[in-house]
Each structure stands twice: as C-alpha cells, then as structure tokens.
Amino acid sequence: MLGVPYDGGTTYQPGARLAPFHVRRVSALLQSHHPVHGIDVFRDLRCVDGGNIVFPPFDREAMRAAVEAEIRQLSAALVTPLVFGGDHSVTLPILRALAKRHGPLAVVQVDAHLDLSTAEVWGEDFHHGTVFRHAIDEGLIADGQLYQLGLRGPRGAETDDALARARGHHAVSADEIGERGPKRVCAEVRERIGRHRPVYVSFDIDAVDPAHAPGTGTPVPGGITAREALALVRGLAGTNVIGGDIVEVCPPLDHADITAHLAAHLAWELLAVIATRS
Ligand SMILES: [Mn+2]
User: Fold this and answer.
1) Does residue 17 contact residue 86 with C-beta atoms inside 8 Å?
2) How many A from CA of 11 to the centre of ligand 1?
3) Are 73 and 112 in contact (CB under 8 A)?
C-alpha cells in the first residue's frame, strides 16, 4: 500500500492529497477474516504500508515520474501495488509502469465520469479527466478491455465516449448496476476478462452516490450505493488483479469519515480479491 498525496490534477474542489492520511487512520477498524470468500486477508497476503511516494506537491511531472519509478521497481520485485490517491491523475503513471511489465492491461475503472477528455477545454492535457484517453492512446489498455462502471450525469458532447466505443470498450452506467445488480455485472466482466489476463482496478470514489460518499471533489448525484460498490470489487474475485488504486477521496469535504471508511473497506475488498488469485 502506497499513498500519492497529489491533487494538482483536480478540476473542481481540491483536497484529495490528504486522503492517504485519513484512510490510514480509519483503516484501524479493518480485520482479517473475509466471511464471503472464506479467507484471512492479512494471513494470506503479506501487506506492507510503504508510506507515501515523495515529490513536490505542485509539480505534476515530478509526481508522474516518481510514481512510475516507484511502481516499476515494486512490480519488478513482484509486489502488487495498492495506491491511495490523490486525484485520478495519479493513475496514469501507475498504468504506464504496470503495462511496461505486463503488456496491455484490462482496466476496471469504477467512476461517475469517463475521464476521456482531451486538452481542448483548458489546453491542459494532464489532469484527472484525461487519464484513460492517455492510457488508450499509449496502448496501456488492451482493445475491448476497459470496463467503465458507474457512469452517469451530464457530458460535454455526444462524442465524449467515442474513443472508448471505437476500441470496443465496455461501459455500464450506475442505473444499469442498480437495475441488474453488481453480481450480474461482475459475472459479465469476469467472463470478458478471463482468469489470466492482468487486470488493474481503478476505483474513483465519485462512482458512489454523494449520499454514501460525500467526501469527493466532483460529486454526481444518482450513483451506486456503498453496498453496490463493495460488491463490485468483491465480484472481481477470479480475475488476475495485478494492482489497483482508490482515488478522489477528499477529506475536507467528508462528514464523519463516511467516505474514508468506505475507501478503507474497498481497499480491503480489493486485497481479498488479490488474496484469492490463483
Ligand atoms: Mn475519475
């Protein structure tokens, strides 16, 4: 587990740089036994809190370089990285490092937003809304293997998801998750991914309804529930998860640590998925 305390890629309300500290604090509540999978997470995995990756918090290039170097080193040592952002822009250097090792990945992106923007809006090409366009353009994601789960809300234009559709990627809206249930959605995702393909899980907490996760900078009403969010991660057991992140938790906007607790439990579910890898 590593923190990336960076929110210079935030387009609206900042504060996500504080998340690693807060999620660590509330993670004291987590225990080891997973009653659904029937495993002991912290017995079956050797988990280490590696602290935060260090870089100047106002230097986005330095952030990307530091994160990519760190993840590359860990992955060469066969360590599975679990990263706490930070805003979603911290995911790009992680994907770069992991795709260098594993080749093009399957990516499960749980998110309210597509994060496929171009530089058109501000002339800035690297922020939390451009991550997956870069990842697709750079060949970090295998064709048809980006799973965007939890999408909803207004978009800039009808063409916002054109890139993902052109590459055969898979999108499931928050409404569909609510209607069909996370178990069926996950069964379909697992079927498409298969057991062996390397999978990266990027969980943007804004996928979750603001009523269940108020502490995030770009809230969108009508999201999935905390229970659906946990079930979505749990339902990835049986795939080959080689890393993941939980991003966009913004402690200054949180209430009673609701969002931080959810992030800690999502991380625990993801660790359990990693523990069940064959
Ligand atoms: Mn996002």
Assistant:
1) yes
2) 11
3) no
Query: From the CA of 64, how far away is ligand 1's center (Å)?
Result: 17
Which region, left, alpha or beta, applies to residue 92 given φ > 0 means left and ψ of -120 to 50 means alpha?
Answer: alpha
- The Å distance, Cα 39 to ligand 1 centre, comes to 31
Q: Helices 258-275 and 226-234, interaxial angle, to 10°?
A: 20
Q: Domain range holding 113?
A: 2-275
The residues whose Cβ lies within 5 A of ligand 1, an ion, are 88, 111, 115, 204
Taking 3-state DSSP, the helix, strand and coil percentages for the chain, each rounded to the nearest 5, stand at 40, 20, 40
CATH number of the domain residue 150 falls in: 3.40.800.10
* Domains of the chain: total: 1
Confidence (pTM): 0.98
Buried b (16+ CB within 10 A) or exposed e, 28-60: eeeeeebeebebebeebbebeeeebbebeeeeb
pLDDT in tens, 91-148: 999 999 999 999 999 999 999 999 999 988 889 999 999 999 999 999 999 999 999 9
Residue 142, both tokens = 């295998």
